[in-house]
Structure formats: structure tokens, C-alpha cells
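explain this.
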Amino acid sequence: MTRIVLGIEYDGSLFSGWQYQNQRRTVQDELEQALSKVANQKIRVQCAGRTDSGVHAIEQVVHFDTDANRQLDSWMMGGNVNLPEDVRIIWAKPAIDDFHARYSAIARYYRYVILNRKMKSALMRKQVTWCYTPLDETKMHEAAQILVGTHDFSSFRAQGCQSLSPNRIMHFIRVYREQEKVIIELSANAFLHHMVRNIAGVLIDIGSGDKPVSWVQQLLDLKDRKQGGVTASPYGLYLGGVYYPEKYGIDKHPVFDLLEADVGRFEYKI
């Protein structure tokens, strides 16, 4: 058996999330069907991190095992021929050593994009979250720094989250403005269900002046999701990249250069 690793880009607008669901359109199902046609056998894939309904991916990482003898370009080009227009395989590589898309990952990176103006966008209806109230990105960034480090993120996880531990390491989080867009970038060793969207909801309330900067620390101390803010829309959320140890030969997103000085923290596992 050969293990193949793929980088996947998708627009999550019309999907019910990544993971296979009976009688629902999912990214996993579309990808497995396409790869199975190339292999002429059933293919099952494992991903670095499942995304919710409406969430996009700039670079999701998956792997699969097969005894079908195909060139790497065949997996990529043949797979794309059989995929819908809102999913694309952007690279293909052979797995090195004991690589696993999920368990070998030591950090994930997400972007959350907020269109901050009076009117909604006709062109980016499902690609951004719209907020008409003026946002103070400086206060949002200040509040976000409270989340950096190892914390119990119980106040920022979905009530139905199945993770055994609420503890995560937030490597960095930053908030900045690009004209009419306010962008939240964050990286952690792993994320809880709805964690990014709940963080975004809290920061939006702080940026709009509804809550003080100190509210973030209060929520961390409370460890109670019921006391948290509104879960922000999935539109505007992107899985931006996944970080793996260098030995696996997976090119890293440039944003992970911010983490290179403190690789020791990457060894923390949930």
C-alpha cells in the first residue's frame, strides 16, 4: 500500500461541512468519489481538521492509502477532472515515514474575514462575515492577546464539543484592518468545535464597544460556554494551513514563520 498526501482548496458555501453525512453534500464525499474513479477502487481519506458547514479551506491536508499505481500528477489532475468546481486538489506528494494528516500536525492556522461597512457585499456573500457596526480593530487585537498561551477554552467551545480536553495552546492571534475588512488570524496546536467562531463573536462584541477588553479574561476564568458571546457566522472562516514537522516534507504556510522561534511548544499534544 502507498500513502498519498494531498493539499485541498474548497469553497464551503454549498457544503454541509467536511465530514461525510448521509444524504448531505460534504467535501469528504466529493473528494473520495473523485479519487475512487482515478484509482478504480474505493478510496477513504483522512483530513488534518474537519470544517463546519459554510467554512472554506485555503489549504486542507489529507492522506489516503491505496495499492493503485498512479503518478502523482494523475491523482491531482485526474482528481480535479472528477471534482466539482468548488473543490480543487492543489498539490500531491508521497507520504514520508509515518505521516498522518491529523496526528502528525502540530499547529493549525485559521483566518476570519469580516467585511466592516454599512452595506453587504454582492460579490462576497459567502466569503466574508458582514458587520455594519464600526469595529475598533486595535481593541480587538488587545483583547485577543489574552488568549495567547495554554488555556482552558471551555467558554469558547460548542456545547456539543466531543473533545476530551478543553485545553489548547494558542500560538498567536492578531487582528488588523485592510481597508473595509477586519481580519483575525490565529494559530493553535488544535481547535475545539466552534472555537474560532466563538472567539470571533467575542472580539466583534469588543470591537463594536458592546463589551470591554477585560471580558476575554472573564470568560477564560468562568469556563462556561453559556456566559460567552454569540457564535459568529461560518462565512468568512478559512482553514489557512497546517504545520507539520520538517521531516515530513510538507511545505508550510509563510505565517508559520512566526512560530519558528518556539518550536518546543509544538510538541504539546491533545
